[in-house]
Structure formats: C-alpha cells, structure tokens
Amino acid sequence: MTIREGQSIPPHQDNCFGCGPRNPAGLHLRMQRNGMGVVADLVLDERHEGAPGLAHGGVVAAALDDLFGGVLVVLGVPAVTANLSVDYRAPVRLGRTLTLSATCTRSAGRKLWMHGTVTDANAITTEATALFVRVGLEHFSSHADVAGPPFGDWIGQARTPSPDGSGASGVR
Ligand SMILES: CCCCCCCC/C=C\CCCCCCCC(=O)SCCNC(=O)CCNC(=O)[C@H](O)C(C)(C)COP(=O)(O)OP(=O)(O)OC[C@H]1O[C@@H](n2cnc3c(N)ncnc32)[C@H](O)[C@@H]1OP(=O)(O)O
C-alpha cells in the first residue's frame, strides 16, 4: 500500500486504543501522511483528565506512541516500541485542538528512532522520542488472529532496511 502525501493512514487495527474507530475507550486518532511522517489533530476531554482541566500525561504519551505507530505504516515496517521518553514542557489543556506530529529521524538494522511533538496554537507542550524495534509478523500473530486487512494491506509492502543499515527509504 502506498500512502501519498496528505492521505489518511489506515488504523493499525479497528480496536487500536490510539487509532481504532471501533474502540469505545480509544482516542480515535486520524492521521495523515506528512512527508515521511504523520500528523493528526486531537481534542482531549474529561475522559482524559489528570489534574483538573488538564490532560493526563499518560494519555498524551499514548497518543504520541500511536503516532509513531502511524509512521511505521508510512514506512511499511512492522515494529514495536522498545523505549519511549516524554518531555512535558507545558500543561496540555482539555478542549483545545492539539496538533500532533511524528517522524522517523534515523534507522539502523532493526532499530528506528522516532521524534514527535504536541502543539497547542503553535506552542510545543510535549515532545517525545522513542526507539522502535522491527519485529516479524509472528510477534503479532502469536497473540491473536491478525489475518486479513488492514494488516495485510501495508505489512505486505514492508521495505527491507537498506544493506548499509541506513534503513527504510526516506529515513535520515
Ligand atoms: C499477517 C499479520 C500481520 C500483523 C501485523 C500487525 C501490525 C501492527 C504493526 C505495528 C503496530 C503498531 C502499533 C502502534 C502502537 C504503538 C506502539 C506500541 O504500543 S507497541 C507495544 C509496546 N511494546 C512492546 O510490547 C514491545 C515489547 N518488547 C519486545 O517485544 C522486545 O523487547 C523487542 C521486540 C522490543 C526487542 O526484543 P528482541 O529480542 O527482538 O531484540 P533485542 O535484541 O532485545 O533488541 C534489539 C535491539 O534493540 C535494543 N533495545 C531493545 N530494547 C531496548 C530498550 N528498551 N532501550 C534501548 N535499546 C533497546 C537492543 O539493545 C538491540 O540493540 P542491538 O541490535 O544490540 O544494537
């Protein structure tokens, strides 16, 4: 599956907490391709509250983690989060239209390094980096029946990291 610039990223699966349209407890993120990364708008509400009027930090981290998962779809690489680091620079307010952005900054062998931000009115509230590690399809299929779309649509197009270890196309 080739996802063109500005095109929607299909959900990882319908019940994904971050982007699955069928998950009643989910964030229902809808991402678009932006270069070799992804962007999404998100409005958090009382369901996501930590301190009064503010988003729970774990919810914000989960949203960024899922955007990194969206970058994987653009790259066509099945991988999982090995490490996630979040800098909370300013409180994230409920009821605001937040802009989330993520990209892969580097890859080598099985490893992909991600960077993402949350902005509110162009001010960065949150910044995250993550290490993802490429896995085989058995990582997923050994826990659940994952046959059929949407996985097959994009996993089948997975690009092999280049021999020099610089990784999937478009990755710096
Ligand atoms: C037809 C079927 C198709 C199905 C397809 C399904 C498609 C879905 C695809 C994509 C879904 C995306 C969904 C996005 C949602 C957001 C992402 C999540 O929530 S993911 C869930 C949370 N993460 C985990 O549950 C990982 C649990 N951990 C593991 O499984 C392993 O630890 C794993 C795979 C990460 C690594 O284990 P190892 O045994 O394979 O490999 P080792 O050798 O340990 O690590 C490889 C390299 O990475 C480094 N590394 C590993 N963990 C590290 C860490 N925490 N910090 C630093 N380096 C680390 C190691 O030092 C090593 O580096 P050196 O090659 O030696 O240079």
UniProtKB/TrEMBL annotation:
InterPro entries given in the database record: HotDog_dom_sf (IPR029069), THEM4/THEM5_acyl-CoA_thioest (IPR052365), Thioestr_dom (IPR006683)
Keyword field: Apoptosis, Cell membrane, Cell projection, Cytoplasm, Fatty acid metabolism, Hydrolase, Lipid metabolism, Membrane, Transit peptide
Enzyme Commission no: 3.1.2.2
Matches recorded under Pfam families: 4HBT (PF03061)
Catalytic activity line of the entry: tetradecanoyl-CoA + H2O = tetradecanoate + CoA + H(+); octanoyl-CoA + H2O = octanoate + CoA + H(+); decanoyl-CoA + H2O = decanoate + CoA + H(+); hexadecanoyl-CoA + H2O = hexadecanoate + CoA + H(+)
Domain of life according to the entry: Bacteria
Alphabetized CDD domains for the sequence: PaaI_thioesterase
Domain Thioesterase: 53-121
Residue intervals passing through the bilayer: none
Membrane-related topology note: Peripheral membrane protein
Subcellular location(s) of the protein: Cell projection, Ruffle membrane; Cytoplasm; Membrane
Family membership noted in the UniProt record: Belongs to the THEM4/THEM5 thioesterase family.
Name of the protein described by the UniProt record: Acyl-coenzyme A thioesterase THEM4
Organism of derivation: Svornostia abyssi
Taxonomic lineage of the native organism: Bacteria, Bacillati, Actinomycetota, Thermoleophilia, Solirubrobacterales
